[in-house]
Specification:
496 residues; N-(1-d-carboxylethyl)-l-norvaline Dehydrogenase, domain 2; five-stranded parallel sheet; 21 helices; 11 strands; globular; binds D-mannonic acid; Dioxygenase; oxidoreductase activity, acting on the CH-OH group of donors, NAD or NADP as acceptor; dioxygenase activity; 6-PGluconate_DH-like_C_sf; 6PGD_dom2
Length: 496
């Protein structure tokens, strides 16, 4: 049998009728958006909303940039940027080829090509999904980490940067020098007030380079956004099933759920695609949506990922099926998180919470607990610790939130319940291992974790009742194991 043909502009017309294809002439698309961090999430979210409306204005094609590895470019370039989006749940699947990504670049291979694209006057938006740690900030304070190795590198080598921050500031410097107006910055990462966080780190970095540049950067539009779609890493089984359906091979399709949401502050001085026609909601202030999503969805996700992983659940759906988990997550959201949320007029919070439970139970997605467990030190502040602060200030219970934090500690220490090493991926993993792996006393382990001020801030470190609760909870996790702790939760009728 001859090897299978590859998905590309050439093979696109041969795909089965049932596969949805770009409804515009791709040869006429030009680049208006540079996206930093072209991973699966971007390709299942912003690139899809853009694909939906590209026919209205072909000048909003996307140049996708990888800041680290060449993998995505190597997969997509031979496919002319085309890839398949598979949307699935318990009911079935829908396949669609997305055409909005028309160029892919690999920053470490050719930083000049990336800077040239970002400085091009046709580029009017630079968006980002670089994950929490890509902001080179202190997660507890939101300020630029001025000692971050990439920050130090990019200050030394402004014309050949490594970090997203370094690329943005150099591209803005070039635009300023050439008299080209600044692009709009569009952070699409799971950070509270992501536009503000981004603006703050780039402005500080520019200030460290040149105060005149800082004044220019301080004026750049940087709307905040709330983004939501669950996108697990693509597996080989996904590739095989998608190739069988297409009749051609796709080296890097993306698999996701039906739900998608994008709430954006409408501040785009150089224009933007007509995303509202694809269901994007434009608002003046996104913060209430963002807090709600980070605390309810992502706070639950992290909690169930740590507890689930420790109890042997490989995927989110498996974790949800552990006795006690659903009760825990439901109670966490309803009793402990919801009272801390800013009010959103007309918004049906109970329905939103129920939809989250259903989304977590989606049996068609193999979303690994290990994937969500990554980078906990960068995620916990906005997912769980801010909520805990609000509950402490209100004198209200927060036992389930504390369980999530204790489960992170139990996980991040790097030893599983059978005594085997865990492959912990976190910028602080090595420091956490050194500080905690030799310890067995829960009190000492908690003290070592609370020593990380960039996670807990000075206030939570010093909060004795909080520390006491963590010690109690971690003791139970260490002695009884995660499954038994969850079971005990259920036996108590979901509350303690
Ligand atoms: C997840 C998120 O990996 C994680 O930490 O919690 O990626 C989550 O799936 C998305 O935020 C959903 O919108």
């Amino acid at each position: 049998m001859s090897p299978m043909m590859r998905l590309s502009s050439q093979t696109l017309p041969q795909l089965p009728e049932t596969i949805e294809k770009p409804g515009y002439d791709r040869t006429k698309v030009t680049i208006g958006i540079v996206h930093l961090g072209i991973g699966a999430f971007h390709r299942a979210h912003q690139a899809v909303f853009t694909d939906d409306v590209l026919a209205r204005d072909l000048s909003w094609g996307i140049c996708g940039v990888s800041l680290r590895s060449a993998e995505t470019r190597d997969a997509l370039a031979p496919q002319d940027g085309l890839y398949t989006l598979k949307v699935q749940d318990g009911q079935g699947a829908h396949l669609r080829v997305i055409g909005s990504v028309v160029e892919t670049l690999v920053a470490p291979e050719n930083p000049q090509a990336v800077l040239a694209r970002m400085s091009d006057p046709a580029t009017r938006i630079v968006s980002l999904t670089v994950t929490e740690k890509g902001y080179c900030h202190n997660p507890a304070t939101g300020a630029l980490d001025e000692n971050h190795p990439d920050v130090l590198h990019d200050l030394e080598n402004p014309a050949a940067p490594k970090s997203a921050v370094g690329f943005l500031v150099e591209a803005l410097a070039r635009r300023r020098a050439a008299g080209v107006p600044a692009f709009t910055l569009l952070s699409c990462d799971n950070l509270p007030s992501n536009g503000h966080v981004l603006k703050r780190v780039v402005t500080r970095f520019a200030e460290m380079r040149d105060p005149g540049l800082a004044a220019f950067v301080a004026d750049v539009a940087s709307p905040s956004t709330m983004i939501d779609r669950i996108v697990p890493a693509t597996t080989d089984a996904d590739r095989t099933a998608i190739a069988a359906a297409l009749g051609v091979e796709d080296a890097w399709p993306v698999v996701t759920e039906p739900f998608r949401q994008w709430v954006v502050e409408d501040d785009f001085p150089l224009g933007r695609p007509a995303w509202e026609a694809a269901g994007v909601v434009f608002v003046a202030d996104v913060s209430a949506f963002e807090t709600m999503k980070l605390r309810l969805l992502n706070g639950s996700h992290s909690t169930l990922a740590y507890l689930g992983f420790l109890a042997g659940a490989e995927t989110v759906a498996e974790a949800m099926a552990l006795p006690g988990m659903e009760e825990l997550i439901e109670g966490l959201m309803r009793e402990e998180v919801s009272p801390t949320l800013p009010s959103l007029a007309g918004f049906d919070l109970p329905a939103y919470r129920q939809a989250l439970i259903d989304r977590f139970r989606n049996p068609a997605l193999r979303h690994r607990t290990w994937q969500i467990a990554m980078d906990g030190s960068q995620k916990l502040p906005q997912r769980l610790l801010g909520t805990i602060r609000d509950r402490i200030a209100a004198g209200a219970s927060h036992d389930r939130l504390v369980l999530g934090v204790a489960a992170w500690m139990r996980y991040a220490r790097g030893i599983d319940e059978a005594g085997k090493p865990i492959d912990v991926r976190d910028p602080l993993a090595a420091r956490i291992a050194v500080a905690t792996q030799q310890l067995n006393d829960p009190e000492k382990i908690v003290a070592a974790f609370l020593g990380f001020a960039e996670v807990f801030g000075e206030d939570l470190r010093a909060d004795a009742p909080f520390r006491g609760r963590l010690v109690d909870t971690l003791s139970r996790l260490l002695s009884d194991g995660s499954a038994a702790v969850l079971q005990a939760w259920r036996d108590r009728g979901g509350s303690r």
